[in-house]
Design goal:
Elements: H1 2-22, H2 27-33, H3 35-40, H4 42-45, H5 62-65, H6 69-78, H7 92-106
Helix pairs in contact: 2-7, 6-7
Length: 108
């Protein structure tokens, strides 16, 4: 009887863990589902952050994911080349959230 209870408990735990992981969104989905991204970034970087020809570069590429947090924050805040500056348009918290979400992609 004890073996049955232990087997049942372990099985239940495994099912709960599987359900929890199944409901976790991929990290790039977190970025692309962010309303701030959709309203301010998707037009140039694509709705899936894959980049657009004649638009913004991919945010899910290796080049973007190796950029430092400070570099990403600086580009979003002050702009670069065709990228407009978002200082004053986005709050520092919104910019930090975008940086964290871009960084999360590299941990995928």
């Amino acid at each position: 009887m004890k073996t049955f209870r232990l087997t049942f408990a372990v099985g239940s735990l495994l099912l709960l863990l599987a359900a929890a992981f199944a409901q976790t969104a991929p990290t790039d989905a977190i970025l692309t589902s962010n309303p701030v991204f959709q309203q301010n970034c998707a037009r140039c970087h694509g709705k899936a952050a894959e980049g657009r020809h004649f638009g913004g570069p991919s945010l899910v590429s290796e080049k973007a994911t190796v950029a430092s947090s400070d570099h990403l924050r600086d580009i979003i805040t002050n702009g670069k080349s065709h990228m407009p500056k978002y200082a004053g348009k986005l709050t520092p918290g919104e910019i930090d959230m975008l940086v964290q979400q871009i960084e999360a992609i590299r941990r995928k």
